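stage 2 :: seqdesign
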């Protein structure tokens, strides 16, 4: 039975992660002012706008942060946790569930950035066409994180800024997200 639950959990993580990735892309594209004329940006906008437009009437942006997209990512993580607990036959406490979904959202954003920086670094290492839509969008999304370190960590013609940012993001997962996840799990299970 646990094999089936593991398989269903994997499929749920995959499905919710794919949908959350679209809304995270929308959130980060707006925050970093990515080129709207990029075909990938237009795809993300057209895919997410029918869901975000009604919510944005009630929940406007805060500075350049699309609060509606952030709320939807958090709700996706909350629903995912509820379904995962239901698969296990556990009814969690609400406060623990809320903390777990916040931790899941932070973890997803951190890992999304790690993967995005890694992909962008590989593309720049192999000198992909600078007008490629993926390269342009990834560059626009990672630039706000890399800009403070750009040019300061160069050795032998290599810029180590992307690696430092990835290490900081992974440390944030270990030092911020993991304790929050542990606290949320203890509260959810009533321990």
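stage 2 :: out
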């Amino acid at each position: 039975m646990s094999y089936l639950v593991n398989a269903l959990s994997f499929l749920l993580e995959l499905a919710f992660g794919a949908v959350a990735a679209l809304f995270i892309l929308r959130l980060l594209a707006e925050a970093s002012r990515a080129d709207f004329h990029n075909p990938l940006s237009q795809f993300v906008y057209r895919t997410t706008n029918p869901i975000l437009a009604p919510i944005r009437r009630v929940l406007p942006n805060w500075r350049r942060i699309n609060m509606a997209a952030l709320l939807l990512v958090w709700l996706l993580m909350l629903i995912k946790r509820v379904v995962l607990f239901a698969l296990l036959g556990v009814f969690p406490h609400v406060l623990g569930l809320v903390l777990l979904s916040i931790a899941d959202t932070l973890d997803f954003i951190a890992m999304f950035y790690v993967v995005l920086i890694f992909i962008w670094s590989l593309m720049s290492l192999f000198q992909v066409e600078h007008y490629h839509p993926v390269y342009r969008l990834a560059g626009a999304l990672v630039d706000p994180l890399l800009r403070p370190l750009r040019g300061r960590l160069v050795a032998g013609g290599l810029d180590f800024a992307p690696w430092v940012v990835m290490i900081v993001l992974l440390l944030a997962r270990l030092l911020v997200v993991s304790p929050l996840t542990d606290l949320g799990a203890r509260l959810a299970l009533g321990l």
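stage 3 :: structure notes
- The longest strand covers residues 154-155.
- The mean pLDDT is 93.
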